[in-house]
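RECORD TYPE: inverse folding
INPUT: C-alpha cells
STRUCTURE:
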C-alpha cells in the first residue's frame, strides 16, 4: 500500500509539473547534446526528466526544420502558413545575400531588414487572401535566428571599414604590378574569374510577363536560378569556358544530351552555388588543362597568374598546388572596386543574354500564329538557356574584356570609350511593343 501511495503521489507531482517547452529551450537542449554534454546533466539543468530530453533529441530534425521556418521560438505551436511564407522569404533573401556577398557589397543590418520586409510582402501578395493578415517586422530577434541559420558574420559595415576598403583598393594595383613584373607575366597569361547568379527566366520588370508572375497561379519562372562563373585573360583575347552550377544534376531537358558536349562546364548542387568542392574541381580538372592547352596553341610559356576575390567558395590555399599557376587574392571588400569581371563584363553579358532570349521568343511568335510569348516562355528550358549563355558569352567583345582591367592593371588596357548599356536596354524593351501575350 505504501508503495502504491508513493507511485500515486509521484504521478500527481509529475502531472502538476508538466508544462509546455518552447522551441527556444528545445533548440538549446539539442545544441548542448550535440556539443557532447551528457543527457543526465542537461536534464538536471532544465529540470526535466531524462526521458523528456531523450524524446526532444529524437525529434531533432523535425524541431530544427521548424526553426528554419522562422516561427517565433517562444511559441510551442507551429503556424504552418506563417512558416511557409517566411521560409520562402528567407530562401530568396539568402540568394540575394549570397549575390551581394560574392560582390563584396557592404551590408548593414538595416539594409538586410528592409530587403527582408520587401521580399516578405512580395511572397505574401503571391500567397493571396489567405495570407492577408500575416505580418512580419524583421525584428532583431528574427535577424538573430536568421543570422545563425544562414551563417552570417560581420554584416554591419562602419564608415571607417568602407574607407579602409577604398584605401586597400588604391594600394593593391601597385602590389599586383610588382608581382607581374617579378614573374614576367604578359596580358595573355593573367586571368580573372567571377561568379554571378542568373535568374535565367527572369524578364525586365516592365514587361507583362513579370507582372503576370504576381497574378498567375503556379507561374514562377523568375525564381529558377543558376550560378555562372565567367572568366578571361587581361588581353581579352581568350575566354574561359563558363562554369554553370545548377540545382539539378540531370534535368529533363538534358536527358539525351552528353554534358561534356555542352558549351559550359556543368556541375550541380542543391543550392546551385559555387562551393569549395565545386571550385577545386573546376580549378584542377578544367582551368589548369584549359590554360595549359591555350599556352601551347599560342606558343607562350605555361605560366599563369589567376586573380581571385575572397568569396566563400574560393579556397585560400590554391597557390600551393601547381608550380605554373600562381593565385593572387584581392584584398577583402574590394571586389566592387577592382574585380575585372565585375566592372562591366558580367553586366553586359546579362544584357546580351536577355536581348538574345527576347529575340528567340519573338522569332517563335512571328513564325507561329498560334504561339504566344506566354506559351513560349513556359516551354523555354535549361538547354535553351545553356545555348543562349554560350551565344551571349561570344557576344562579349575583346575590347570589353580588356577594358575592365583599367583599375587593376592599367598598363594592359587599350583605349576604350565605354559600353552602350543604355542602347541595349532600349532595344530589349522596344521589341515587345504591340506583341501578342
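DESIGNED SEQUENCE:
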Amino acid at each position: 500500500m505504501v508503495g502504491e501511495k508513493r507511485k500515486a503521489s509521484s504521478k500527481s507531482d509529475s502531472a502538476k509539473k508538466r508544462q509546455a517547452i518552447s522551441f527556444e529551450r528545445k533548440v538549446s537542449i539539442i545544441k548542448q547534446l550535440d556539443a557532447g554534454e551528457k543527457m543526465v546533466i542537461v536534464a538536471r539543468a532544465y529540470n526535466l526528466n531524462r526521458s523528456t530530453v531523450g524524446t526532444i533529441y529524437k525529434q531533432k530534425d523535425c524541431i530544427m526544420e521548424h526553426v528554419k521556418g522562422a516561427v517565433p521560438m517562444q511559441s510551442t505551436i507551429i503556424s504552418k502558413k506563417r512558416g511557409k511564407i517566411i521560409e520562402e522569404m528567407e530562401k530568396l533573401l539568402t540568394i540575394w545575400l549570397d549575390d551581394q556577398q560574392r560582390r563584396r557589397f557592404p551590408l548593414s543590418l538595416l539594409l538586410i531588414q528592409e530587403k527582408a520586409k520587401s521580399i516578405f510582402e512580395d511572397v505574401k501578395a503571391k500567397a493571396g487572401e489567405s495570407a492577408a493578415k500575416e505580418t512580419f517586422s524583421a525584428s532583431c530577434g528574427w535577424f538573430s535566428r536568421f543570422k545563425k541559420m544562414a551563417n552570417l558574420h560581420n554584416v554591419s559595415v562602419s564608415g571607417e571599414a568602407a574607407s579602409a576598403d577604398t584605401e586597400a583598393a588604391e594600394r593593391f594595383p601597385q602590389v599586383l604590378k610588382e608581382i607581374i613584373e617579378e614573374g614576367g607575366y604578359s596580358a595573355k597569361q593573367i586571368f580573372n574569374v567571377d561568379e554571378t547568379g542568373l535568374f535565367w527566366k527572369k524578364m525586365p520588370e516592365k514587361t507583362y510577363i513579370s507582372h503576370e508572375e504576381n497574378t498567375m497561379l503556379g507561374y514562377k519562372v523568375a525564381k529558377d536560378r543558376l550560378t555562372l562563373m565567367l572568366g578571361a585573360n587581361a588581353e581579352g583575347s581568350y575566354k574561359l569556358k563558363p562554369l554553370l552550377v545548377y540545382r539539378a544534376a540531370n534535368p529533363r531537358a538534358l536527358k539525351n544530351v552528353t554534358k561534356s558536349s555542352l558549351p559550359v562546364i556543368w556541375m550541380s548542387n542543391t543550392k546551385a552555388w559555387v562551393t569549395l568542392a565545386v571550385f577545386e574541381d573546376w580549378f584542377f580538372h578544367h582551368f589548369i588543362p584549359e590554360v595549359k592547352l591555350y599556352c601551347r596553341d599560342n606558343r607562350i610559356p605555361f605560366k599563369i597568374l589567376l586573380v581571385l576575390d575572397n568569396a566563400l567558395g574560393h579556397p585560400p590555399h590554391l597557390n600551393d598546388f601547381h608550380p605554373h599557376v600562381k593565385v593572387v587574392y584581392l584584398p577583402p571588400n574590394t571586389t566592387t572596386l577592382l574585380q575585372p569581371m565585375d566592372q562591366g563584363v558580367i553586366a553586359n553579358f546579362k544584357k546580351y543574354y536577355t536581348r538574345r532570349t527576347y529575340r528567340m521568343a519573338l522569332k517563335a511568335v512571328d513564325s507561329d500564329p498560334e504561339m504566344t510569348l506566354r506559351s513560349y516562355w513556359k516551354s523555354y528550358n535549361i538547354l535553351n538557356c545553356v545555348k543562349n549563355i554560350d551565344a551571349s558569352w561570344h557576344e562579349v567583345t575583346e575590347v570589353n574584356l580588356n577594358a575592365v582591367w583599367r583599375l587593376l592593371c592599367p598598363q594592359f588596357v587599350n583605349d576604350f570609350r565605354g559600353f552602350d548599356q543604355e542602347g541595349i536596354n532600349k532595344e530589349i524593351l522596344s521589341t515587345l511593343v504591340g506583341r501578342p501575350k
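NOTES: The chain has three domains: 22-66, 80-150, 172-430.
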